[in-house]
Amino acid sequence: MKISLGKVAVLLAAWAFGITPAVRAQGDRTNAVPEWRTDARVARSLHMDLLGRPPLAAERARSVGRPVAEVVDDMLASREFWQRWFEEQLYYFLLVGNFRPQSERVLAIPDELAAGKLDPRVAIHRVALSTSFDQRNPGADTFVTVVMEQLTGLEVQKNTRELDIGKKVYDGNPGRFLGNDGSSQADVVRIAVESKAFAKHFVGREYERLVHKRPDSAEWNQAAGEFGRDPNAYRALVRRWVLSDAYRARVEARVPVSNRLFVRGLFVDLMDRLPTDEESEPMRQALDGLSDPAPLRSVLVRMMLDSGKVALPKRESIRDPAAWIGGEFERLFGRPPSDVESAAFVAGWNEPHCRVQTILCALLSSAEYQSY
Amino acid sequence: MTHLHRREFLKSTAAAAALGAAAWSAWPSAAQAAPGGTTRKTKRVVLIAFAGGVRSRETFGSDANVPVLKAMAAEGVLFTRARTSNLGHFGAALSMFTGQSEPRGIRENARGSEPTVFEYVRKDLGLSAGDVWITTAGGEQQVNYAYGLHPEYGARYGANTLDGDGIFNREFKSLLDAWGRPKEMPDKERDLYRRLRGALAAPRGADGRTNTAESAAQVESYLLQELNRGTSDLTGANAADGKALRLARNLVTLFRPKLTAVVLQNADVAHGSYNGYVEVVRRNDAAIGDLWTAVKNDPELASTTSFLVCPEFGRDRDLNARRGLDHGDGSEDLNYVSCLAWGPDFRRGAVVKDDVMVIDVAPTVCDLLGAKARHANGKVLPSLYA
């Protein structure tokens, strides 16, 4: 049998990304839209959603103009994709701050996922068995309630019998929880993670996290079935979702930037690097403590711009203000300025008290920078 | 309990009062703005969710733990049987603010569908965001108390929320020290900055904002001032609760909001330590005492401010295997808590033993201030007014 090099490449890619024939067919159909190429806005959105940050300067230069599917594939093949996924799961379980897991076994999850040694279901199982999860959710009632709500999506108020059984199992008594036998706290987690409800709930919340809307029932059921049969299908599901028309519409509509993304984005946009945990966590925690974080975001923007630590261009080095301002709009908003905006900013630039910081502060503290 | 020295308090008060007079004077008062209005003496309400799960046994059932709350009850009304819903801390506290017992996930980090007391009050009385505040102790989840997703209300009527421990902690203060505080913009540059912001097209899909540009700038000033006031340095078993109460005290005395809510959380240490839990209850009682004293020492506040203090639910009847107290046994200790009201319109020294509901708190606050909790299921607390 003769197999072409192209076909070998496709099969290898499918193997590497865990893409099933059904998923590949979907992906092929999506890829059949040839005109969807990466522009500045798409590059920014994809990096924010898949890697939790805007593109670095070099990545932006590499991405723009390429087919979106290629850019997505590069990101899905990276370890950073799994690190982002892991951090998002910890945030979902509110295992942040003092409750952030410290054990090597849990912290190794992104590496093991990237190496294909672990699938997302086993990874979440490991998180839910961690000491941090136990400490975050102390006592039988809280623990079983959280397991039911966050792992399976069940509403405990409508499933009080299961809650009561789960609490007995948690306390070491034998019981049939969610249709399976158990007699320990670990069994409560295992039974929940292995349930059909887990797959449905997991793909539903992941779709919503990435596409920023609830999946329609057909996609939800199909994805839950694929994930339930093989949790390694997760990466292929993500590929399908971000190449879908629904995601394309979401990029056009824009969505609010979370505080986590804002902090990481600010460092990338101003310093072309990610913040350290020591830099990002106090900022994220402080922003999360405000119902309207805009005033504090503005404080942080000004703090960084005034710090002397950001490599800003010297005013006299900017020979073509319109071009520089246009470039900053593209970089930070993913679009060029309108004629009105360009005129206003160039006029502002020509005022004697305007600094580089003034222009950047106006862009970075604007409502548009708070969405992507 | 870390007590604030009088000199320190007066110093911070003077500095911030100057800021308040200058920067916050644009915020309208209820008297200027309230279309509904009310003839009651109460013009301001402090609502304390004594949350984290606190039984009546450790408060009004104990001689020594809560001398302040007992003193307040002696001058106000004590409801000894306030029925709760075991919806988890988040859902139960949220129900206190919405007047509806809607099931919410314990770790659900999302807004409720019903309007909160803050939205009712802001919308009905035409208040600005600077007139309605919540200080919290429970981190990320609790900012969701600020407003719900009801289409007639929402972010534009939300409260300003400050999580004491989230913002006023040593790590954040150290970060600001390391990077340097933002420099004050010269007037001409600030004017240009505003014009540039104004020239930007409004983005599609932009969310409604709780603060206007003006009130956001005022919040920004306040945050930078507050970071210098020592709140970040509070420590101890109730550090997060203590910060929430300290912030509330500063807000109430300096800026006199119409509605200030405080959400406590540290009592939940009870899962692992009964003694730790009792210590938190005692410390929080003392911190509430600081807030109450500050109000009583200000003649205007003393004659126009009402307090409501209520846990979101209690705790189990019996100790668990760790000699702690969980919350899930369905006992009377869990399902009924004590709720107190103190203020110029209330009866004095009254004890109401009839069943009321924790969800009655939101309609009561609205009634006091002249607003209406249209979507709440709770009712105004009975036998309350003099």
Strand content of chain B: 5-15%
Q: Report the radius of gyration of chain A as a whole number of Å.
A: 23 Å
Strand count of chain A: 2
Mean pLDDT of chain B: 87
The description of the largest β-sheet of chain A is: 2 strands, antiparallel
> Order of SSEs of chain B, N→C?
HHEHEHHEEHHHHHEHHEHEEEH
What's the level 1 CATH class of chain B?
Alpha Beta
Over the alpha carbons, how many angstroms does the gyration radius of chain B reach?
Answer: 20 Å
CATH fold description of chain B: Alkaline Phosphatase, subunit A
Q: Supply the number of helical segments of chain A.
A: 23
Compact summary:
The complex is a heterodimer of chains A (372) and B (386). Chain A is mainly α.
Explain what you see:
The complex is a heterodimer of chains A (372) and B (386). With 372 residues, chain A is an all-alpha fold. Chain A has three domains: 1-77 and 198-251, no CATH class; 103-197, no CATH class; 259-370, serine acetyltransferase, domain 1, CATH 1.10.3130. Chain A has 23 helices and two strands. In chain A, strands 1-2 form a two-stranded antiparallel ribbon. In chain A, a hairpin with a 2-residue loop joins strand 1 (175-177) and strand 2 (180-182). In chain A, helix 5 (68-76) runs antiparallel to helix 16 (234-242), helix 21 packs across helix 22 (339-349) and helix 21 (321-333) runs parallel beside helix 23 (356-364). The N and C termini of chain A lie far apart (49 Å). The model of chain A is unreliable at 13-33 (pLDDT under 50). By secondary structure, chain B is α/β, with parallel strands linked by helices. Chain B has one domain (6-197, 211-369): Alkaline Phosphatase, subunit A. Chain B is 39% helix and 12% strand. Chain B has helices at residues 6-23, 30-33, 67-74, 88-98, 117-125, 164-167, 170-179, 187-199, 213-226, 239-255, 274-296, 299-304, 332-335, 361-369; strands at residues 44-49, 77-83, 132-136, 160-163, 259-263, 305-310, 336-342, 350-352, 356-357. In chain B, strands 1, 2, 3, 4, 5, 6, 7, 8 and 9 form a nine-stranded mixed beta sheet that branches. In chain B, helix 1 crosses helix 10 (239-255), helix 5 (117-125) packs parallel to helix 14 and helix 10 (239-255) runs parallel beside helix 11 (274-296). Chain B starts with 5 loop residues before the first helix and ends in a 17-residue tail after the last helix. Chains A and B meet through helix 11, helix 19, helix 20, helix 22 and helix 23 of A and strand 4, helix 6, helix 7, helix 8 and helix 9 of B.
